[in-house]
Amino acid sequence: MADWAGLPRELILSLAERMGSLEEFIVFGAVCKSWRSVATKENYFTCELGPKHQVPLLILPQEKGAATRKCYNLKKRKICQLNLSELEDKLFLSSLGWLLTVSKKDLKFCLIHPLNHARIELPRPVPNMAPSLLSNFSIRKFVLSTSPSWTSNFIVMVYQSQTVSFCRPGHSEHWISVCLHTPGILNDLTYYEGQLYAVNYYGHVFICDIEDPKQAEVRIVAPQFPKEYLGPMMQIKVAYLVESAGDLLVVLCFFNPKTKFHATTGCRVFKVPFSDGSSWLDSEVKNLGNRSLFLCRNASSFSVEASDCSGWKPNCIYFMNNKRASLRVDMDMGIFNMDDGQIERPFDNSFNICYKGRNYETSHLWIEPSF
């Protein structure tokens, strides 16, 4: 019988470098102790392992109570199965590669890594949250200040009904709630360079200072998006915040109210916060270079570098603009090409047709590649 554990370390590292995705890299490390000693975070981000393995996963809607989840791998262009029994009978959202799960029975909150199944218990309950209100409509966003994979000093934030609740696992046993007095309902939040940013449906961008919950301050760093820039019959469908190559970007997705199901018809990208004297037009980003943006209503958006063999296109926006699967409405997902302004909807019909006769929890969910 072959002694796989006794292979030279250099050979094991060479084998690890041949793994085609992050999930394969993690499975590789589960073979035995000597292979696990090679499949580390440090090796993942050295010898150009990291960029090659950063393949976004798309979790597909699943029937209630299912222990496994179907996921689409962009690089392999095929659907795979992930054992995610931790999600059974729970609501979940994503940020920085981690899942926030919420039990509908007892409102228990937990962080789960979908690939290595690391688990972090969170305080409970979130203030002002009742089981009757628990849905992916009441919890609009989940944000991590930094990845728990790299540090124990991180903040977990959830947004619901103009209120941000946050906790510091391991440092506090309670959630703290802060009411954000902003115009309109917020579409998205993100943590960027030590500050919490938010954007609403109108395009206002805010910095939210929540250090003192009793005196939370909201400062506008980009005004409302001018209606005259929308174009005839165009409206903002959803606004996203995403960090890309060190910059904070706002992505506005547009639709025509006369189109069927209000499907997305275009996207525009802007760099924020605005510098002194600049405007929306001055801050517009026309080219993302070799990076792609992945936008999702139920997850923190992210950007990933593309290459010839990555499986996704550079200078494109992969959007998923439904919050949950509908029995009546087709999925509004596709790829917006920044070069020509065209939208492709290349995914198989099972990705974007109505899920008739089935009972689904949430819509599709982009998962950021994260160790």
From TrEMBL:
Give any Pfam family that matches: Beta-prop_KIB1-4
**The KIB1-4 beta-propeller domain covers which part of the protein?**
72-337
In terms of InterPro entries, this protein maps to: F-box_BR-signaling, KIB1-4_b-propeller
Can you tell which superkingdom this protein's organism belongs to? Eukaryota
Q: Which PANTHER family match?
A: F-BOX PROTEIN SKIP23-LIKE, OS07G0183000 PROTEIN-RELATED
Identification of the protein by name = KIB1-4 beta-propeller domain-containing protein
What organism does the record attribute this protein to?
A: Malus baccata
